[in-house]
Request: fold
Amino acid sequence: MATIELKELTRHYKQGKTVIRALDGVNLTIAEGEFVSVVGRSGSGKTTMLDLVGLLLRPTAGTVTIDGVDTARLKDGARADLRGRRLGFIFQEYNLLPALNVLENVMLPLRYNGGGRQGRARALELLERVGLGDRAESRAEELSGGQQQRVAIARALVNRPALVLADEPTGAVDTQTAEELISLMRHLNRAESVTFVIVTHDLDLAARTDRRIRLKDGVVLADERPDTAIGLAV
Reply:
């Protein structure tokens, strides 16, 4: 499992002479095994924060510490290694490779970390757990959107990551499918003892998380738990 600490985390961009403060001094600690949502209007800094925690971007200032490792001190190769071993990613548009079947898509992260027979067994186990054990040989285009996202969730977990980062995981599916995906992620969060950080506009998903972090203009507007949350306007 993973503990994440963000200290004065800042990411600024320049557009001509204008400085865009995408993230502006965020301080947060996310504990092992938490199921957390990050909400806010478009442009609030949600995806930027996710990309910084996922080591896809480097901060302008501040630090991202994962399990005591200050990632700002790591060179690119070490960051990629940490990302591959400890992090899993779920995207809104699934990002499955059409040339590969379902099982091969789930096993894709294992190409970078070995795996072999044990990796194949793990991938098949996860497909069973997400309800797609009978579709291992199917192509992505033969699956519904919800099924493709289930494959993406299995792929995110195949390396037994400590942390899964999800960017609008229910944004491209209908309401019923979104509900099924929320339940599935919640179940896997508990069963796999893995931390989930989920960027979302889906209020039903946010309401099911243990903690809701609201961003506005690159800063934390509220950090709410079920017993303290007042509203979730995004």
Notes: The chain is about 30% helix and 25% strand. The chain has a mean pLDDT of 91. The CA atoms of residues 55 and 79 lie 7 Å apart.
